[in-house]
Class II fructose-bisphosphate aldolase
Amino acid sequence: MSETNTISAQARPLADVLAVATRHRFAVGSFSPRYTAMIDPILRAAEQLRSPLIVQISQREMQRYGIAPDEFGAAFRAALDRVGTTVPVVLHLDHSFELEVLQAAIAAGFTSVMMDGSAKPFEENVEISAQAAELAHSHGVSVECELGKIGTTDFVETDKDEEHYTVPEEAAEFVRRTGVDALAVSVGTAHGLYIVKAPKIDFDRLRAIRALSDVHLVLHGGSGVPAEMIQEAVQLEGGGISKVNIATDLEEALLASLGRTVRMTNAECSALPPEELRRAEAAVEETVAAKITSFLCSADKASLFN
């Protein structure tokens, strides 16, 4: 294995963090700030509550909000220093679709990357996911992939609101053939806000996937799902969901604090007057703290890590 990347002394690979979460039956929040100025409040909430944490951004978020991988990595490093972060953290590249994007993130110091080949036929998904795992592991970086199609309501991460639930037997074969560290599964949740359809989780499907594979399980579309539903998914016998993605709830809190309804670019957010930035940061920090305490059951779990 080659030498690990530049952030790894401060941030950990995803697999290491999720191993502890699975064993102790809690979930680690994977929070997407979408704006580099909002990394600090996410880290502050985790530090105050002594919770492990994942900070993430996806390929499409970088494109939509105007952020490059190296810019996000540099902002993350600076935020770690400003906050004085001591809890376990992961810097994760969420939904991405080309190996070149994963390579750029790894070069920028990300300690975890995701290859999303879920829109491809099964064999093509296996092929590109195995390539992503080989690339990531050669740099000491963890890899997450997706099997099944997770629906959407906001079209940030996917182009169509289509769902195709993960087949447990296919999940077992996929993990065996690719060597991925974590698997995002489609069991009923959706990206974005639940406006028309209600959130749901197919617990029987989750149990069947777990019975056939010990891969770390990831739930995308965590925003808007009731806490009791998430907690049941996390605490399934034998280990349930250990990573939950949360993005929309953070942005909604930020925009509400500013009296806005329209997304900004990263540059526009950074250029906000100081008093508006403080309001936005406070709203994001409060939202992250609420998720950690009542949603993920991860408060005070930093003590479980060496």
